[in-house]
Amino acid sequence: MNATSARQVLVMTRAELEAWGADLGRALRAPAVVALTGDLGSGKTTLVQAICRGLGVAADVTSPTFALVHEYAGSAGPVFHLDLYRLEGPRDLANLGFDDLLDRNGIVLVEWPDRAGDRLPSERVDIALEHIAGDPSRRRVRLT
C-alpha cells in the first residue's frame, strides 16, 4: 500500500473499521507512513489499534497523547504511533526524534499529521475519518 493507491470512500461500523484496519496492517510493508486525520472521537486510535493487530503487535496499543510517541514490536519490525495533537508545529518534531523514526525502517502511524506540516514524507497513506451526522455508530473513511 502506498500513496499512489486509488482514492476510496467507505462507510463503516466500528467492527467493520477494526476488521478493515487489521487488513490494512497486514498489507503494509516497511518503511511506511500512515497519516490519520479526523475530529476528536472519530476513531483514529481505534483504527491504529486495528492496524497494529494486523502488524502483529501483541502489546496493548494506547493513545500516546501525553507521551507523544509509543513504539511497539510488530511481527516484521518496529511500529511507531505518534499523536501530534499537543505540538505547536513542525519545529516541535525535532524533540521527538522524528527524522530518526522515519529512518528506522518501520511503520509510522501519525495522528494529527497537520501538526507536522510539510515534514511528513510525500509517500504515505492518508486516511481521514469523519463522523456521519445522525448516525453515531458509523464513520466515513477516506483513503488516499
Description:
With 144 residues, this protein is α/β, with parallel strands linked by helices. The protein has one domain (8-143): Rossmann fold (3-Layer(aba) Sandwich), CATH 3.40.50.300. The chain is 21% helix and 30% strand. It has helices spanning 14-27, 44-54, 98-102; strands at residues 8-13, 32-37, 69-74, 77-83, 107-111, 125-131, 138-143. Strands 1-7-6-2-5-4-3 form a seven-stranded mixed β-sheet. β3 and β4 (77-83) form a beta hairpin. α1 crosses α2 (44-54). The longest helix is centred in the first third of the chain and has 14 residues, at 14-27. The radius of gyration is 14 Å and the shape is globular. Residues 1-5 have low confidence and may be disordered.
Could you tell me the radius of gyration in angstroms? 14 Å
- Report the strand count: 7
- Averaged pLDDT, please? 91
The major beta sheet can be summarized as: 7 strands, mixed
Compressed to H and E, one letter per element, the order equals EHEHEEHEEE
Enumerate the spans where pLDDT stays under 50 for 5 or more consecutive residues: 1-5
Number of helices: 3
Number of domains: 1
What is the straight-line distance between the termini? 10 Å
In CATH's first tier, which class applies? Alpha Beta
Percent range of helical residues:
10-25%
Q: Under CATH, the topology is which?
A: Rossmann fold
Tell me which CATH architecture applies here.
Answer: 3-Layer(aba) Sandwich
Indicate the overall shape. globular
Structural class: alpha/beta
CATH H-tier superfamily: P-loop containing nucleotide triphosphate hydrolases
